[in-house]
Design brief:
mainly alpha, 15 helices
Length: 256
């Protein structure tokens, strides 16, 4: 494969030229051990026919080996769009996101991950995409986005783990000042796994949102898990909350 013939093929372009240039690259690399020339030929093969998967894959492989980050990310984008294989496309998007994240390009890294997420829980790479989005939300201190990701990831877990994850999401929504959503998730978590941590959060959220009746119920449930002075203090707070809610009968029951 002479340089003149290769240059002519590159100038002509098209699928046939791409195949010829890729074959020349393999020859130069395998027999002549000329890595730089082989790289140039692979690039020429891709440029001759940007729709050629084999040429694109060859450029991607070499870009990884050469640590050519700009070319690597470009080819990951192109191949993710070109490939019809959903698993392969997901792998490419995850690699792209990982590369961008490693360079602290967090907003850019979200794009391929969100692309996977939008396909739903059955899509290849979904769990990995959620994990990546969670890391990025933490890096960006985006608590609202973090909460949404925690809710989505909870749906991939068993009942007990899901309840714990929903409580994490509720805390994130609280930090994001979305108290209604935080309350909803806290209730949902407690319905599956009642616990002191959940009732404590429910008390705090109810107090912050001015829901006296819910505060009273949460304090009563929290008191049931306490003993001695702690229990008495919580019941007294519940009594005050029932009175604030205008629920005098409930207050009497609490006293009783």
């Amino acid at each position: 494969a002479s340089r003149h013939a290769c240059d002519s093929a590159a100038a002509v372009g098209g699928p046939a030229a791409s195949k010829a240039l890729l074959a020349a690259a393999q020859l130069v690399e395998g027999e002549l051990m000329e890595g730089q020339r082989a790289w140039e030929l692979k690039l020429a093969a891709y440029e001759a026919d940007p729709g050629a998967l084999d040429a694109a894959e060859a450029v991607l492989t070499d870009a990884r080996r050469r640590n050519d980050v700009d070319r690597l990310e470009l080819m990951l984008v192109r191949l993710a769009v070109m490939t019809a294989d959903e698993q392969r496309a997901a792998d490419l998007k995850l690699e792209l996101a990982g590369s961008l994240e490693s360079r602290k390009q967090f907003e850019a890294a979200r794009t391929p991950l969100e692309s996977i997420r939008r396909q739903g829980a059955s899509a290849p790479g979904y769990a990995q995409a959620l994990a990546g989005l969670e890391r990025i939300a933490i890096e960006l201190t985006d608590v609202a986005a973090l909460a949404e990701i925690q809710v989505a990831s909870a749906e991939l877990l068993g009942a007990q783990e899901r309840a714990a994850r929903l409580l994490e999401a509720a805390r994130s929504f609280r930090e994001a000042k979305q108290l209604d959503r935080a309350l909803q998730l806290t209730r949902e978590s407690l319905s599956a796994r009642p616990g002191k941590g959940g009732f404590t959060l429910l008390v705090d959220l109810s107090r912050e949102s001015g829901r006296h009746d819910e505060l009273a119920r949460a304090l009563t449930q929290l008191a049931e898990q306490g003993e001695g002075v702690e229990r008495a203090v919580l019941l007294l707070q519940a009594l005050e909350a029932w009175r604030a809610a205008g629920e005098l009968e409930a207050a009497r029951v609490t006293l009783g």
